[in-house]
Amino acid sequence: MLSVDPVLRLYCALDATFPDSPSPCHPAYPGGTLAVALDAVPWSHTVEHRPALDQSAYSHVMDRVALPLVRVFRTLLDRYGLVAVDGALAVELSSDLALTGRVVLRDQAGVGRLSEASDDEKANQALVARGVRVLCELLSGLVRQVESARLSLPRSPGSTAALVEHVGPAELNTLFEGEFRFLRPETEKLLRGTDLGRHAHSVSTEQDAVLRQVLDRVTERAVARRRDPGLSPATVLIDLDFCAMVPHERVLAAAQQVAGVRAGAPNGIVELASPESLPILPCYAAAGWEHFLELTGLRRRYPEVDWAEVHLDFYYACFLPWERLRSDSLTPGLVRFVRAVERNGGAVVFNTARRDRTRAHTRHVLDSGGLLTQRVLTTPDSHQRSAPELKVENLGKLTDPYVVAVFDDLTDNREALAVEAPDAIQIAVELPGFTSDRARAERPRDGAAVVAGFEMLPRPVEPAGEPPVPALSHVRIVDRLPLADLSNHPIAAEHGVRLTEADALALIEQLMSVADREAEAAVAHAERNLHRQLRAVDDEAMRTVTRLHHMLTRRQFCRGPSSSYPLEIAVRDMLGSVSAGEPITMVLPGLPIKQCRNRLKAVGPLPDLAELGFLIRLRELWQAMRRIHEPGIRVHILTDGLHFQRNPPALVHAYSQHIRRYVHMIGMAEVIDVSDMDEVAARRLGPRILEQRDSIEAGYRDRLWDAFAGLDIATDPVGTVELIVARDPSRGWHRKSADDTLSLLDVRSVITSMLNMVATEAPAGVDRQQWSVAVLSDIYNVTDQGASSELLAGRRDVLRQTLDAAVHYVAAASADRALGYERMFSSRVRLTVNTPPPGRCGFAGLGGSELLPWQGTAAVDHHGMLATDFAISLTDRGFLPVFAPMLGARQPWFMVPTPVVHVRDRAHGAQLDSSFAAGIRLRRR
């Protein structure tokens, strides 16, 4: 289990196999390690000698002791049904008494297993409660030990009780809140009633599936709209009370307000006077009120009370005075779900029976959560009709709505809306801790799916008892990741593989060898496939071009539809060179810079194995093409790291220099030319072209800023982007043609693509990656009342940087088009790494990998296929870094799944499984 589970591999060891050192061996400490009881750790020494002195003592202890304790407890319990119950957990220290970041199970007999028998529920709860006590005692001991060592751990102002019921830093509560999210529902149930119960959180797979189904429907509609722009966008209707908003404070206040003396309750209704102690709270629908009385037993205890009258009083107390509406909170997951709907091409409309007079109170809650622009449909102040009628009437306020889903807590509302939107998915929202209009044992009358909120699972759920299989995310945009819910592993680098130079060169040789064989096989396959077609062609040059075109559009080389590059265009591009017996010229813009400036995509600035694989795929294409046309090809890679964006020149030059080094390493220096786009333009179009371009670009930039005058994207991000779309003059500047090498994008599209590329400036002592997560996980929320002023300022800074970068990019692309940068090369094959427009050939450098090499971090999946993924996702999903001399010890060359890394002995450290390493190759499609 410890060798294959990604979490236990990092944070846990056994004190059993080796009497002198815990096992598995820690790869970073060849001198061996020690298992030391918590109260015997020399805290002052270990902290003073921590490897990263810029990390605070508090963060060091949290990362190396508290976090491992919690993650091991959670993983054993949630994934394997195991609980450490006898306190036999120790801390692992290196031979020089440094904290390794692992905890040690000193006695496996002290680990209890949950029973799978249904009648053992109480025994399981007792076992879990005992394990929780052990964990809390260990953490309490940690706090006492650290405080006695006077390591000046920070406290929150006014904090007295912070570690459950024990004294300690308040930040440990934050640790619990973060680490006990997205448990299996059965685990969350077992933790109820323990000291960790209030931190336990789960989301059912059924809820996850329903919400993803809605997003899929939104995406399908967006695709249809691209084919037929006249179609209306997908609309998702969401109710407010007990649906999009949680009226917890209002319900508590209303319950207390109706708890006083009345007929049938001469001493008042005591239970309502202290509603926090009730097992469940009422919603204000009549059916939900009846279920509340039944579940709490209040009707039986107070049979003489007129409960219908109490309900009416409760109902009005929930709304009056109207100011109480401002105390509502947004339902967990709502903001992220709304953003996902909008990102997928749809719109969210809040459809409520609230009166018009409550609009300001309603907007206050939505705006405070960052939902500034979504439409809210309210009802007339003087209405006398039912809520279902009013909600249906609200649909008439929308222009030709295409409703794909309806979220509402009340069945009557859903049934009425289903008549008007028969194809919409009907979804019942039943907030945890509140009653609904159905008994929980019954299915909704209208057959609606049931969700408890809007949260989705951050990653696939593995079957209980099995370690997760680390897999790629297959996500193309960072903001499609649930950033705030991804796990960071600060000690993962210490468990990585460190290749020797010989190992790294052997891997490069292996990739080239496989690629060369694939090229030879591809040519043989092409000859068989083209046999009949070629018999009808008399001209030998045309026969050669036909073969070359077939090769370029094979799945291992072609990105996007092969129809974008038809044979007649290939004849135009290649026939002259073939007839003259010359190499075929190919032009490929790309390889600008590693996108590492916020540490979410890549953690270092240099090209890794993904870029090298990209170049080897070009070598494979060269090998195939020269078997058909002996002079082969000549590839001009136009790097544009300084052309479209204001990147630090030193980073761009270091990246490009390393790319050229890779080109030499794979023997392609005579075939692949890597040059800066502007340098090539000056050589081929004349030295004055750059001066002209600067002037024209500045003009375009001024026109854009003039159009956007008075707009501040950092004040109302979503609304400002919509205004930018309305004012954007760039759409009419140029007409697209089949000869375009540079696709002109509108400003909004560029903002979306660049939002996660700009640099984030973390405060002193804060990890850059974690700061980027905090900033970008809810980047449009610049009014978050729960966020620090520093965080909100960070979001505003990123938004302004992004708009500036987008304007710069659009102006640069427009200048290129105006000056005819296409004229740099006359007869050539136009390759593109993006989905190709007509007349260009898409090039799949890494087969079907969703990300381009420079947009992320190289990763080899469990099948041995080389791809690219985001660093933050790879770490979360259980990939370990592999370092090589060409990039040094700080930036991984690529990452691999945990199970293929082995630590057999102290002397050799972490090593790749030999059979896995022998199977690493480029993806074919």
TrEMBL record:
<dbReference type="InterPro" id="IPR007817">
    <property type="entry name" value="Isocyanide_synthase_DIT1"/>
</dbReference>
<protein>
    <recommendedName>
        <fullName>Pyoverdine/dityrosine biosynthesis protein</fullName>
    </recommendedName>
</protein>
<dbReference type="Pfam" id="PF05141">
    <property type="entry name" value="DIT1_PvcA"/>
</dbReference>
<dbReference type="InterPro" id="IPR023214">
    <property type="entry name" value="HAD_sf"/>
</dbReference>
